[in-house]
Automatic annotation (TrEMBL):
PANTHER family: INNER MEMBRANE ABC TRANSPORTER PERMEASE PROTEIN YCJP, MALTOSE TRANSPORT SYSTEM PERMEASE-RELATED. It comes from Streptomyces chartreusis. This is Carbohydrate ABC transporter permease. SUPFAM superfamilies: MetI-like. The keyword Nucleotide-binding does not apply. GO terms for cellular component: plasma membrane. PROSITE patterns: ABC_TM1. The chain crosses the membrane at residues 12-34, 74-96, 108-129, 141-161, 182-207, 244-262. Belongs to the binding-protein-dependent transport system permease family. Keywords: Cell membrane, Membrane, Transmembrane, Transmembrane helix, Transport. InterPro entries: BP-dep_ABC_trans_perm, MetI-like, MetI-like_sf. It is a multi-pass membrane protein. GO terms for biological process: transmembrane transport. It holds the Pfam family BPD_transp_1.
């Protein structure tokens, strides 16, 4: 009994330490965003601003087109999430239900592709987009985001498809439903948590992505929010901490809002009781 309590206490302590580790940067970012310049340069910084101000937010909006950049990021993230889910869902179904050598090889390639560094693929992608005349365009950026997010999205959905009892599809086949009808009417609704989780992954990945947007987008009007945030750093590498923290805080809000809205859908147990043995 005592050993069990000690182990449980250790787990709670480890979980609390992990939460503190994750929350520290975000809390410090919020604190910095509301501090006036004299507190930002203080040798004895405090968690809670002594004289909180909104001047950093006003300065950030005055110096950079944050709203336009946020709209560009939103278009790219939503487009990438939608296309990635539409492509990954039927592909994951085929890979999960038809376990051939080709399907196993494709699964292995999906896992290996995640190890490729960005620098390794940026030049081929740049040349392809250049030939397609999609450099410095939102469709080109969305295409790159889909290519980058699709392998992991496919890997996620394969696991969800395998969790769907094949008996449900067999029952639909007995009732006369074809493969496409079964996927749309039977399997897809049961995959809702997996589809939502995959879409969220693709959205957050595209929203926070910096390297591809920096290389592929040249016109200031097309740049996304992560690229615009770098404009708060001067030529000599000196950052304007107040406006930068305020803009970075605003940039994190969409991801938090998306997760808050759909976190109830990212749960298991939807298939409980669907099939009786």
């Amino acid at each position: 009994m005592r050993t069990g309590r000690t182990a449980r206490t250790g787990q709670y302590v480890a979980l609390l330490a992990y939460l503190v580790f994750l929350a520290f940067p975000f809390l410090w970012l919020i604190s910095t965003a509301f501090k006036p310049p004299r507190e930002l340069g203080s040798l004895h910084p405090t968690w809670i601003p002594r004289d909180p101000t909104l001047a950093n937010f006003r300065q950030a909006f005055d110096e950079q087109p944050l709203l336009h950049a946020a709209l560009n990021s939103l278009i790219a993230a939503l487009g990438a999430a939608l296309v990635a889910v539409l492509l990954a869902t039927p592909m994951a179904y085929v890979m999960a239900r038809h376990r051939t050598r080709l399907a196993r090889a494709a699964t292995g390639w999906v896992i290996v592709s995640q190890a490729f560094p960005l620098v390794l693929v940026i030049i081929p992608l740049f040349l392809v987009l250049k030939n397609l005349r999609l450099i410095n365009s939102m469709p080109g950026l969305i295409m790159v985001y889909v290519v980058w997010a699709l392998p992991f999205a496919l890997w996620m959905l394969v696991g969800y498809v395998r969790a769907v009892p094949p008996e449900l599809e067999e029952a639909a086949a007995v009732d006369g439903a074809g493969r496409l009808r079964t996927l749309v009417s039977v399997t897809a609704p049961l995959l809702a948590p997996g589809i939502v989780a995959t879409a969220m992954f693709a959205f957050v990945t595209a929203w926070n992505e910096f390297f591809f947007a920096l290389v592929l987008l040249k016109t200031p009007g097309n740049q996304t929010l992560p690229v615009i945030l770098t404009h708060f750093i001067g030529a000599e590498g000196v950052a304007d901490l107040g406006p930068l923290a305020a803009a970075a805080f605003l940039a994190t809000l969409p991801s938090l809002v998306v997760f808050a809205l759909i976190q109830r859908r990212i749960t298991g147990g939807m298939l409980t009781g669907a099939v009786k043995n």
